[in-house]
Amino acid sequence: MSMMLQTALLKFVCVTCVVHFQISLGFHVVPIELQVGTPRDIILPGHSNYEFTLVNLTDLNVTVAVFQIHTQYKNLSASLTTIPSTDTAMNGSDVGLITELTIPQTSATWYVNNSHNASVSAQVTALLYREQDPIPGACNFEFDLTDDPNIHVRYNIYETYIEFQKANVGWPRDGKQQQCDHPPSIPPPQTRLQYDIYQYFLPEHNLLESVLFEGLRKMTTVEDILKYGKKTITLQGSHKPTMSVSSYHGQGVVYNIIVNDPVRGTTAAYVPVSSYACSFTAKVDSCHASALPTSLVFLTILGILGLFLCFAGHHYFKTEMFVFGFLAFALVSYVTFGALTNFTILVQLLVTSSFGLLGGCLLWLFWWRYGSEVWCVLVVGLLLGYLFASTVFFTPFGDLEPWESNANYGLCFTCLVLIVPVLLIYFTKLLNILSCCILGSYLFIVAVSSYIYTSLGYIALNPLKRALMSDFDQAYTSVPFQRNDFILVGTWLFLITTGLLFQLITQKGKDFPPCPYDEWKRKRNERLLQAERHVQGVDENEDDERRPLLPTV
Fold this sequence. Notes:
Layout: H1 3-24, E1 29-33, E2 40-44, E3 48-54, E4 62-70, E5 76-79, E6 89-92, E7 94-100, E8 108-114, E9 120-130, E10 135-139, E11 151-155, E12 159-164, E13 166-168, E14 194-201, H2 209-217, H3 222-228, E15 230-236, E16 242-246, E17 253-261, E18 266-269, E19 273-275, H4 293-312, H5 317-340, H6 345-370, H7 373-394, H8 406-424, H9 428-449, H10 458-468, E20 475-476, H11 483-506, H12 516-535
Parallel strand pairs: 1-3, 16-20
Antiparallel strand pairs: 2-9, 3-8, 4-7, 4-9, 5-6, 5-8, 10-13, 11-12, 12-16, 14-15, 14-17, 17-18, 17-19
Helix pairs in contact: 4-9, 5-6, 5-7, 7-8, 7-9, 7-10, 9-11
């Protein structure tokens, strides 16, 4: 049994014991009557029990009632019975339960327990589905509930994984459900069902509970999901009920699924779930922290250097070589060590910085010794090509189905990287100035985005995720593009334009600086010649037929 499963069972047993203890002592249960399809925000005091009831279920065509309760991150226990059991209760921050109605039944009741010492804000909703509607999660083979309409989410720093249980076709009250486990020779009716997965981005890095509850309201019913949600993918009934999306630390997202029955022309919604791809209770790198202090210092220094390169990179060519050599080697080392080791983020940052410094020194030394502007600018052009390819795949173009193949993705990405230096390497000076302006301004934008949350930093990061994660090729990489993003995109374009015009004007008529090694050798020869003439007692101002007209190199 895995550690995660043991932990989950332990939590469930603890909550069950608490509820049993409270019931045995006669703790007061607060009754609340719900309205169908109307979300209700409530505050559950610490160590309290609530009884939620949906009445007037007299329409015999209504066969299923779905109860759902949501909190931001604190777990609550919800049960179909007063005494919870593994197949009737669930503990979590997004909990959904299904009650199968019988013919004489005119109401449905659910029980919720808050075992925390403090009060918990929650949102509760009840929905009804008719016998013609598909029933979410009614073909549950993996989780504890008999019918599980919940969407299960887990995440890491790269990906967020979404898993759900398949639906069943509707059935009448007191009728028999369609079997979900048919023999392979008989195609079950559930295979005709289709699953549309939607997501809704909350405002950028807004961690307020009220904002989350408003987002949940917009993703509860089928009508609201179609109105406010963004469709990511459609899974057929024969597909595996899982998918993954790119993780964005601190960005709230609400996910939900609409199951369609194309034969009956009916739909139903699962229970929405929220994720911030971070922990609210962690002491280090929590949802409230934008970045690690070391990362902030690192990005701030890069941002200042980027702004310098944007307006003066070509003039200070040796400094430019060091910075871009640093970036090139840091990029390669990050992918290499990330794939081969399990370093922490801090250690990975230190290793990447060390190899970046080595790369910066090597490119600077190459320019100092050989003075080949073509080869040096080629390295810079490849970095510009990387940013260009990353930007293209950052758009909806990157979510097209052909790019799920690593071969297709790698070939297209490589071609996009190479197309920039191949087209512009003949115009070496223009390529260099353009690279300084675009890459330098992007470094500045990334530094700013570490203080005010935006998604632009993921332009260059998503290809690294794909290189490091073996299953990231299946991840949906849609990103929120909101107010801060539009402001920073405008700032980025402004910096590129002004930096390009400034460098083209100030560097007009000027070429690349001479090779530093040739300059050093020329000055050394001049000093040696002067020393030799001084030893021979020759006046420098006196004409000498043996004196060369031009200094030797």
